[in-house]
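Winged helix-turn helix, pasting as requested.
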Amino acid sequence: MLHTDERIIKHKVGLLNLAEELGNVSKACQVMGLSRDTFYRYKQAVEDGGVESLLQK
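Structure tokens follow.
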């Protein structure tokens, strides 16, 4: 069973990966039920501080 922190990171990274796979941020956000703003906050967090920084977003 995944630890809560790992589950949070996996979900957030999943959004980033889905957007890359689909080549469409809007569609990935729609599928995941999240806003584009949320996607870009996650993306910026990873760029600034790595995947671990997603725990704070």
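Note for the archive: The longest helix spans residues 4-22.
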